[in-house]
Amino acid sequence: MLTAVLKDFNNLVLEDTLIPAPGFGEVVVRIKRCGFCATDYKAIKGIRRNVEFPFVPGHEAAGIIAAIGPGVVHFREGDEVICSPSGFCGACQHCRVGNHHYCEHAFTTGGDGPVDVWPGAFAEYMKTRESSLYHKPPAISFDSAALTEPLSGAWKGLIRHSEMQVGDDVVVIGVGGIGLLCLMVARAAGAGRLIAIDPSAYTRHNALALGATHVIDPSHEDAKTRVYEILPQGPDLVVEAAGAISAVKLMTELRRRGTRWNVFGITTDEKFELDGGLTHFLEGRMDASFGTTPLAMQKAIRLMESGLVDPGKIISHCFALQDIHQAVEVMGQPGRNKVMITL
After folding, report:
1. Engineering a disulfide at 33: which of 65, 146, 218, 222 sits with its beta carbon 3.0 to 4.6 angstroms away?
2. Under 8 Å between Cβ of 161 and 262
């Protein structure tokens, strides 16, 4: 099968590899679509260094079951499926209370976080466990299905962790792929005023098209001043979805008493400071969110199946697997949103 293998930072190679064989409880999926996440790009370019080579990236996948191993009972060959990159044991103390993304024996297919990393979906076939698969409803396209995991992360961050309420005034800092999904979830959940902050005119235009009530260009206006012009009482919830430390610092500046704020996008080890006394008396609540859980995946599927959110709307570019290097180039350029690898 054709596989994109990262041999070293900035050395992504297309090569023929063996199609994996499923073991007990495992399934091999013929990949149809795989989203190109910023996490994948950071690994390829060496921006994040917690990578062991060789590494097959790609963790936002959907496809068709090609083979099943012994012990698989809920899926058959030919089933259309959504793949979660998060694998879990189901028996440790974290799994028992629903925090599957904290699993002591976790693995990931092509993703980030666990020590145990399996080959991902920048390949024609990918092996995973049955417990990491979900049946794809017929009404959901493969494009949208492949984005179930990032959509589930947006639901988990805003609704599960930050407990967004109907009518909340929400600010999303950074409206690339994950930021737009956060914005779409906020809109579906009944946000009042919904402000998108991003220096890119392209992404601000997308934000308005997908439900933002206001957009702010922080490179040409003072973002805090503008937010408080729109929201004189300040925001109820601020979501950092940009992945930059500057966005985290802006988020802390936007707080008023009771503001909830979610450190969602940044994954690199960078530092920011807080005034202890001010933070105490503001009595806000800081949340963060990473990864996904079975509950979040099911909620994301429900959002798509009911027509409340269509993540396929954020796709701006599609590339065949053999054109993966062009996809890498586009990932590093402005004027793009979600990049999709098609097979």
Report:
1. 146
2. yes
Residue 243 is part of a domain; what is its CATH number?
A: 3.40.50.720
Q: Are residues 244 and 110 in the same domain?
A: no
| Whole-Å CA distances, 89 to 82, 127, 168 | 19, 16, 37
Beta strands (DSSP E) in the chain are: 2-8, 11-16, 26-36, 60-68, 80-83, 86-87, 107-109, 116-118, 125-129, 133-135, 170-173, 194-197, 214-216, 237-240, 260-263, 285-288, 315-320, 338-342
DSSP string over 251-277: HHHT--TT-EEEE-S--S-------HH
What does the alpha-carbon distance between residue 172 and residue 208 come to, in Å, rounded to a whole number? 12
Query: What pLDDT was estimated at residue 144?
Result: 98
Q: Are residues 38 and 69 in the same domain?
A: yes
Which domain does 48 fall in, by range?
A: 2-146+310-342
Q: Is 328 among the domain residues? A: yes
What's the Cα-to-Cα distance from 84 to each of 67, 128, 280, rounded to whole Å? 17, 9, 38
Residues 6 or more apart in contact with residue 276 via CB below 8 angstroms: none
pTM assigned to the model: 0.95
- Would you say residue 123 lies in a domain? yes
- DSSP single-letter state for residue 123: B
CA quadruple 207, 61, 152, 305: dihedral sign? positive
Element (H, E) at 297: helix 294-305
Contact 27, 129 (CB under 8 A): yes
What gap in Å lies between CA 325 and CA 182, rounded to an integer?
28
Quick: pLDDT tens for 81-116: 999 999 999 999 999 999 999 999 999 999 988 999
Q: How many domains does the chain have?
A: 2
Residue 337 and residue 255 share a domain:
no
